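User: My advisor asked me to double-check a structure prediction for 26S protease regulatory subunit 10B before group meeting. I don't want to rely on an old file, so could you generate it fresh from this sequence?
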Amino acid sequence: MHFCMIEQNITTEGKHLTGCSEPRKNLIMTEIVKSVDVEMMMNVESEKPGDEMHEQAIEEYRRKLAEYADVESRLKEIRIHVNSLKEEYDKTENDLKALQSVGQIVGEVLKQLTEDKFIVKATNGPRYVVGCRRSIDKKKLIQGTRVALDMTTLTIMRQLPREVDPLVYNMSHEDPGDISYTMIGGLAEQIRQLREVVELPLTNPDLFIRVGIDPPKGCLLYGPPGTGKTLLARAVASQLECNFLKVVSSAIVDKYIGESARMIREMFNYARDHQPCIIFMDEIDAIGGRRFSEGTSADREIQRTLMELLNQMDGFDALGKVKIIMATNRPDTLDPALLRPGRLDRKIEIPLPNEQARLDIIKIHAKPITKKGIIDFESVVKLSDGFSGADLRNVCTEAGLLAIRGERDYVTEEDFMKAVRKVGEAKKLESKLDYKPPYFATVGDIASLIRKEHQHICSVQFYTCDNLRFAYSAPFESLLKSTFYLRINDSVHLVQVPPDFYEKLVETRSTDVVRLMELFGTAQKSNENTITENLKLLKEELQPLENKARLKSKRLMWLGLGFLGIQAGILARFTWWEYSWDVMEPVTYFVTYGSMLFSYCYFLLTRESNEYPSVDKRLSMSFTYKAADRHGFDFKRYNELKENCRRLEEELRQLRRQRSMIFKA
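Assistant: Sure, here is a fresh prediction for 26S protease regulatory subunit 10B from the sequence you gave:
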């Protein structure tokens, strides 16, 4: 009776066994029955109550069930360990085979003939028709794919990744840093526009598909230095967690022809292979400047680089999930083809921060600083008019340095006030860039400008016509006191005006302003062809000046010729190593002595009249010659120098011919 009761209870409990197979379940129940058989008989003999025997059987059953679960878990762990050992064994065996096998040849797929045959060009030169392993996806073996060939059978063993230039590889591994949008102050509207152009097409491309428009390809960030253009690009790359290529445009330019354009192709190919990707090109004005018809070989190489960049941005190959961000502080110098929609769809200006923006920025930079007491940042900001974000960061740094000098571990409000005044004094010494688009004036426009700025000048005379272009974006008075660009015959010269030039110009009441600028620009050149052009320029301009004086012209440009003689003389002396001193001595003597002739005559005129030449006074060359003869000036020597100039030009031509023959040999 007790046996039947126990068996019935065990059967009832056995129904609760889940996850076990039927044979195993029966085996467990049988073992439980056998284990309690002896105790059951003893209990029958001792006539114990049936409830006690029932409880003992249940406890034994539970113990066996726990042991079974423990064995199952240990068995599972052992199986996992065995599988890991098998994988490690297979890897070790493959590594051993690789070490024992010979190397493989790197090749490039040229064309697919049949399903299993390909034309491959090996790195050592020859081309082969080879087969392919079955495990390789043949759809990926397109033209230009790099593959590994077996040394003996030349079978395609595996597909290799695209070859990446080391410079591009280093660009891709530059960490943008852990920067969030909250770390950028005062640029809420700019952040919104940038996220629309760059972030939204990468995270939600379905929005553009439903609307039926193409997402923008890139944007241009422009504004004064230190306003946060680079910081914005780094924040976008950090928030998206995508591949990021930071390119310094000046590093792309190479001295070898074609290398810069190849670098652009490598960069965009890498970005397409690692989508989504953001390409950030800083200082884009280094390669994206306006194109012009003439220039040096270096200028033409930069133009080829720009054309390759334009082709990659809007060519036949789609960019896909590749977005471009460019930054510059000189947007007026960029080529119009680069700025058009389809390449840079949006131009975002990053201006200098206003008062509220400056307050947000300085609070962000001052947050990690150890401070004492309550600091009134609004008072600090009121003294920072015209500061950029970089200047405000410099204010915090200067405040910390003041605390270090005071041997303190904290910064006070007084430190911030001293720091902002110090940075403000330093900014007064900096030259502010003018971001107005440059105005390329004609000769007539320059004449009108000079008359407008200087009412006492009654006429403006020019010796260079039609091809003279002068670029300015500042008032004429401040322009003459600084550095400017002069474009003559489509060649650009950087002109540095002496500090006292403007005062002398006003005192002499000279009208040939543009011509003086031309002489200054011409005197800045420093190669062999330029020296010859300077000599030719002097020789051609001496005669018109003499004719002008004989015809009783209004003005003579003595001061400009004096400056030219000094600069050209120094220029000739600094280039003596290109030729023997026998050749360069007459050059120096002619340029210096010949031009100083006019400065000397000008001195005589002003000495006798005690005033500068005016419009009412008529000058003649005969008067100049008489004054020069009276002081012992040798005009025969001057004519000899002219003859020496002609002889020098012939010697220069001979030198060029000899040099070209040496290079050809």
